[in-house]
């Protein structure tokens, strides 16, 4: 065994609830490890696998006994087989799970055959009860010349709806020929939501701690609260079935900890609420319930990995200075909470896919415009922020070649430049950013795919086109549009490295696609890649949120939605937000006045020329194929599923297909699409 593998196993086995097993030549399983049924032992959250490599996989389950106190340990056996019936077994390992990990088990199985479909199950220690059978697969070797197929998902608020799109994906995958089946599922975060009140389709039982936050809605505070959320979310049969069918690769976004988080700060009130104890609790529960291989993650050959298993940390909730944008706030409790776990890592799947996964929360500096100032400008903490304010505040002391203004004029308001002495903002932090650059530069894969929580492309609204007293606004500064300096730095690095980049993101509850440019600031820039941002599985769509927030008599209402019947469009509600993003505010205003889409587009010309597609009232999932020729992406939109269903797949409203190819001459890539199958969204239809 290589010394690196010995070191990994030593570290892995020291983790809470972690075990390792080595594959061997096939053998017949021992007699005690045959299930005969025992209703007192069950596996209520199913099984899962994650982070496959060519010769290893991480397996997961949670066990529960009805006939013993919850603090009692439970003996298990895990088996891995090439055969569906487990007639022969590649690996078998006895283990014991305890209350310390909420009776979850993480089992690392190594020395497996590459690029292989495998089956696994967990048995109670005496063989009396068995988990459901899991199906997984190992990755192809780095030199394998074959397509890689995977799905990607984001944002699954349990209260807002059911996860039927997973069932659609499963049924389609079962019908696909072997060479077209999915290899894995990439989950981009918001796997759980830390608070209550995100919908009314179904309910989350009260938190063990009570979870009350002042006068606000309850949210998770303790490790048991976060565990309670994972147990509840994983009761969904469609999610259980998906985790049992494919290995998952995970990153988190904000709601695994707290809404719009940065470092160990929550943002419910001041934008910098002390939440170090919650950060540690959230990290612990994520580690227990998400099958991610972290400590001594091997990455690619020659690379450095900073991924690290959860380590308990004793912390006190201490105030954080939200004006400090110099990097990781050097407060001992903040540093201990953030460093209790690290999840950014990379995977190479054959010759054509380098998958780079980052953490956009734990190391980011505070949002560029302080919430109290943003409230004065837009009436919101982080939404609809004037672009000018973002540009000045984010750049800090580097603005205008080191000559930042003391104040900023926004309409009739004079705003003090409180970031005048600050460093530029960062979403990745220094160490993660250096690792990201090294990984991107070192990759030999045909395509580098960046999986991360929040969108990279700008999503702006040119309010000045319809209101002379208004300006172009950034939809939200919680995305990369709030961290302009670092985005320019990273995309310029990609351009210099001559890398073809594909960004896969989520968080914003709408699906959109377009080309990536180094700065997004000047016409004629060479595209360096593309982004495909996916809507939520169940979380309320961006369009729905805007409609609910905007009064019917607001002069800006036509930029979001309008009644099509007065202008001879045969729909009660036109989803104008799509057109506003694609062609500008004036285009939507013209469409609302005339109903003439051609005239509307001619009048438009907004700030988002890089966009090719927007579906703002979407629920669903994405599917990707990567090979030597290019990257094919399918954005799948479904209706919101607010009533339970079992085996029947969820109806698909539309599929938007895109193809990204290497370009010759003027650019590094060329984007084809969308080709829309099914009912197209406005403005991709006309009267």
Short synopsis of the structure:
With 687 residues, the protein is α+β, with helices and mostly antiparallel strands. Helices cover 21% and strands 24% of the residues.
Describe the structure.
- With about 675 residues, the chain is of the alpha+beta class.
- The protein has a domain of about 140 residues: Purple acid phosphatase-like, N-terminal (Immunoglobulin-like).
- The protein is built from 15 helices and 31 strands.
- The strands form 8 sheets. Strands 13-12-11-28-29-30-31 form a 7-stranded mixed β-sheet, with no helix packed on it. A 7-stranded mixed β-sheet has the order 16-17-21-24-26-25-27. A 4-stranded mixed β-sheet has the order 1-8-4-3.
- Keywords: Hydrolase, Signal.
- It is an enzyme of class 3 (hydrolase).
Question: What fold name goes in the CATH topology slot of the domain at 1-138?
Answer: Immunoglobulin-like
What CATH architecture of the domain at 1-138 would you give? Answer: Sandwich
User: Portion of residues in helices?
Assistant: 10-25%
> How many strand elements?
31
The description of the largest β-sheet is: 7 strands, mixed
Q: Given this structure, which CATH class of the domain at 1-138 is correct? A: Mainly Beta
Q: In whole angstroms, how far apart are the ends?
A: 67 Å
Low-confidence stretches: none
Secondary structure class reads alpha+beta
- CA radius of gyration is 25 Å
Tell the overall outline: globular
